[in-house]
Amino acid sequence: MCGIAVIVSNTEEISEGAIARMTESLQHRGPDAQTCIQLPNCHLGHTRLSIIDVSGGSQPMTEETERYWIVFNGEIYNYRELRRDLERQGWHFRTNSDTEVLLRAYQAHGEAMLTRLNGQFAFVIWDSVERQLFAARDRIGEKPLYWACSSQGACILASEIKALVASGLIQPKIDLVAVDAYLALLYVPPNRTIYENVHTLRPGHALSWKNGQLRQWSYWQPTYSQQPTSDPQELIEKLRFLIAQAVQRQMVADVPVGAFLSGGLDSSTIVALMTQHANQPVSTFAVGFGDLIDELPYARSVAQAYQTNHQEIQVSIPVGEMLERMTAVYDEPFADSSNIPTYCLAEFARRHVKVALSGDGGDELFGGYDWYRWLFASHGSKSGIGRITGLHLIALAWRVLTKLGLPFAAQKDAAVYAHYGASYQRRYPDLWEHHLAISTGLNTNRSQLWGSQKIPETAAAIRQYQPSPDVKSLDRATDFDLQCYLPGDILVKVDRAAMAHGLETRVPFLDVDLVEFVLSLPWQLRFQDGTLKYLLRQSCSNLWPDALQKRSKQGFGAPVWNWIRRPDVQNLLQRVCKPGSPLVALLPGCLAALPNLASQQVWTVLCLGLWLEERSECLNSLE
């Protein structure tokens, strides 16, 4: 993994110090080397974490004519196959890196190269003859890429928002819709940023810039339930092959590779398949947090079954201290509390390896969340659309109540389900509107937080994730989780937590061949009998130790209801909510609303307040 920074301009002289400041701010993403190149109209910066072709893959990279230049963050897993194809076409290579393959692929195929790539990536290519920039981001959004335009017409791109700010060319302005969406979702949705004048290149999108004109377009969208029904056993065998192929592809590196191991079905599958391709014991890593979060016994059982080089530790988390640290790690407010244990796990793993595979994406791809079971049940109902809608709402209400940090018994209370179900059925007769309303979990409390101010038009912003009418049934829920929740929450959480320590993470379940195959299968097969992760169980259950076979779903969460009551956290809460604080300036109703908020809601407000303390200047535009 790496950090990339770019400034292009047709009209102004680019300050020599800007690209250096941007590159320096990304040093954590690439601690092995930092390099800046200043070309006419284009400055390029790169920080490198050396993984493939350690000695020969330095960036920014150019080809022999020095017309094309590239900065690249990520890994192209099929780069060897692409290289062989290009060599057959007459292209020559000077290094063994996937970066050079990307550059040659652009020379050979132009923008059409994107459809040939299998990997996680964000890259920028500069054509010094045409004075044109081309940038792209991987299909699911594993690697980040942000951009902004200065008042003088420069276009700035970088791996993290902090690098755009470090350029000194923009003054970020808070986006009230993004703030409200964060309060609803616990994260800023991945089609926007917390600033109105800073933008994200969306997953599966590309961007070009020339003569001051910027264009964006989508080069990939998921398609669902398109494959005709065929022999189920053949499908299961192909699925097993694709999962194994994805794991093998993502083990390619010139440095040590390990794996996160929680003892869940997803990470255990990855570790089991890694052992089939490793020449020595696979290094696995697990972290326990005492009685509050302790998956170590499950991880240990998998490690023993596959004789891995298992490393584990117990950690006592200084929650208040870690909360303040997260405001620097995450450039936007982020309230998924599992970012703290993820940060600790990444720090531990980095002591031993540079690359770690994880089981992320398995829940979204194979249907691992409990709400999918309820959704499936609704399609089996013969009691009419009202019953179907009610069950759908029950599933989504359970999801929101879980996020709000309510005790387990309250989450499962049938009376609560009935209340939420009836309420939302009356207010939102359209099935997608139900999904939207329930997914924005703070919809009953956000008005209190904003006080007398008008609540931003958040629903319309999130509704941009509504799929087309031809996406039906459970595919609609899958689409939201794949296109909003996964890239907005899960992948952001892991990328920032890992790269803060210079650790590259890879996600085999998001291999493009695997994703496209699974989503193409009829949803009735993917969710057969309402069994969570039905296809994964059918294809890979023989890999799991007996202790895992019947283990219930347990996310890598954090005990927010416990943490929020700690004295150090309470002190932080009092600090960010004091009169005159940036949080109170933004949300004048927060003091009055706090006593009525659930634990997760309080945590969400606290994370926003801590984030604002370090960036209060972004509120100047509101005065």
Describe the structure.
The chain is of the alpha+beta class. The chain folds into 2 domains: 217 residues, 4-Layer Sandwich (Glutamine Phosphoribosylpyrophosphate, subunit 1, domain 1), CATH 3.60.20; 286 residues, 3-Layer(aba) Sandwich (Rossmann fold), CATH 3.40.50.620. It is 43% helix and 15% strand. The chain contains 28 helices and 17 strands. A 6-stranded antiparallel beta sheet has the order 2-3-1-9-8-10. A 6-stranded antiparallel beta sheet has the order 4-5-6-7-11-12, with helices on one face. Strands 15-14-13-16-17 form a 5-stranded parallel beta sheet, sandwiched between helices. The chain is globular and about 65 Å long. About 6% of the residues have low confidence.
